[in-house]
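Why do we bother with holo predictions? Because pocket geometry can differ from the apo form. Keep that in mind while you read this record for 2-OXO-4-methylpentanoic acid.
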Amino acid sequence: MVNSYNLEDLAYHLKPKAERRQKPLEDGELKSFGKMFTDHMFLINYIGGQWINPRIVPLQPLQIHPAAKVLHYAQTLFEGIKAYMHPDDEVYLFRADMNANRLNNSGNILCMPNIPLEVQLAAYHALIDVDRIWVPRQEDASLYVRPNMFATQAEFGVAPSTTYTLCVTLSPSGSYYPGGFNSPVKLLLTSIYHRVAKSGTGQAKAGGNYAASLRPLEIGRKLGSKQVLFLDSLCESITETGAMNFATINANGQIVTPPFTDEVLAGITATSVLELDGKHGLKVTQKPIRLDEMVDGINSGTITEANGFGTAAVISSVGRIILDPKDPLAKKLMQEGKVTIEDEQPTLKIGNGEVGEVTRHLYDILTGIHRGRIKAPEGWLKKVERNFSD
Ligand code: PLP
Ligand code: COI
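The structure, written out:
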């Protein structure tokens, strides 16, 4: 079996043909984000300083030793990539090379081994090729690709593992947020909780960063928010949310997103939006968003829109930023008359709280590129070649 990225020793141990999905997903079958999985997964093991035994096997539970370091010390990282069905009935991966690079960067931060880019890309292409029937054709849906590397050495000493597994699973996914693009989300702004620390692991897609975001996420959910908007360690500037980069849009149409510091993940969606500066009528810049300036800008109307960028979230409009009344920041902003009270919640309503014109335009451009309706910049999309047949 040949595959486009030449992972020559890749073994295919597939489900019998009759047990695999036979037809494309119908509208009623498709679920929201990350709830449905395809027939197969990819596995490769790191043992004795080498990546060995790459294979595509039926999706199945993994066997892991109860002392595996990942289960105790969270030495694990992941990536999120999307593949799209285009009008030519072919499947295209969006900027997976950037994800492969970021996976290795996360590995460096977490003392985990690098995986050559060709190996990662070969795995993604080969697995999608095998399970291509699962790629949704629906407009707001795509195939989400989730590589996940974890430490498998069974030993309780706190030290980097000597062995690892990389597992890649595929999830046909609809919108991340219920209601999709036309339903702006609420974010909880907090000065109490931080997701990552300065000089910490914020530049890694480390499982632990997401675990640390769960407590404020749950507090926010009880208050009706979908994500938490985190401040930097000094509570001076906006960083990002738990699953998206953040941007504000000024009345002159300028999109502003914070620099990728050690407290802001270098998002591939945000990078792509930045690279679209000056194209399709978009004006995009990367500069710090100071908390006080953002609050004043929303109140004075110089900030008219806000949104979140991410592979899962695509471009998500942010209609309102709320605060927990118990948060000292909420008390301060209330005293200063800088928040309104909606449903008993200190609230910053952005513009009229609906999806704004610039956000909609940006969404149309980016999703047009994803789906092959608008010409993509060179190298952004790679066709998943049809190398697999049985
Ligand atoms: N920030 C965080 C914390 C994320 O989890 C994500 C999602 O991957 C992003 C930002 C956006 O990154 P990307 O656009 O690469 O998906
Ligand atoms: C992504 O957008 O790929 C993410 O990783 C965000 C989230 C689902 C954790």
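The pocket of 2-OXO-4-methylpentanoic acid (ligand 2) is lined by residues 80, 243, 310-312 (CB under 6 Å).
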